[in-house]
Amino acid sequence: MKTAIAAFTLLASLFTAPAALADPGGSCHFHGSKPVSEAVVTGCASQRKAALVKAGKLDASWQAAALDKAELVDGKKGKEWKVVFQNPAAPDAAKRSLYLFFSQPGNFIAANHTGQ
Q1: Which three-class secondary structure state does DSSP give residue 62?
Q2: Which backbone phi and psi does 71 adopt, to 5 degrees?
Q3: Which domain holds residue 93?
Q4: What is the pLDDT of residue 31?
Q5: Which residues, listed in sequence order, are joined to residue 74 by a DSSP beta bridge?
Q6: Within a 10 A sphere around the Cβ of 106, how many other Cβ atoms?
């Protein structure tokens, strides 16, 4: 009987562990120093923007915000990606641009409305 319970517990943990460890932003975590393409970083920026809306850190109108540009800029620790979204429907006129920063290999650094 103890063997059956142990076997069942082991099988149950094998099937539930991947779901418990899944992270919606996990596909945008990179290792190494190989630079990612603009297409990859804009996809990660869209995912990050959606996560900020879902978490309530951005107004819901940001969900439909359009990608304005993505460019490599000089950051504090070297080159980094700066991705800009524009939202003309943003409630605060001073916050109609959203800037997302990623390392050159594609890892998220920060998000703000100032671009700094």
Answers
A1: helix
A2: -150, 155
A3: 28-112
A4: 87
A5: 79
A6: 20
Letter for the amino acid at 115?
A: G
* Residue 28: exposure state from Cβ atoms within 10 A (0-12, 13-18, ≥19): buried
Q: What is the pLDDT of residues 85-102, one digit of tens each?
A: 999 988 888 899 999 999
What gap in Å lies between CA 47 and CA 106, rounded to an integer? Answer: 13
Which two tokens mark 103?
């390392």
In 1-116, the DSSP E strands lie at 66-75, 78-86, 97-103, 108-112
Q: What is the mean pLDDT of residues 39-48?
A: 94
pLDDT of residue 15: 60
Whether 56 is in a domain gets the answer yes
What's the structural domain count of the chain?
A: 1
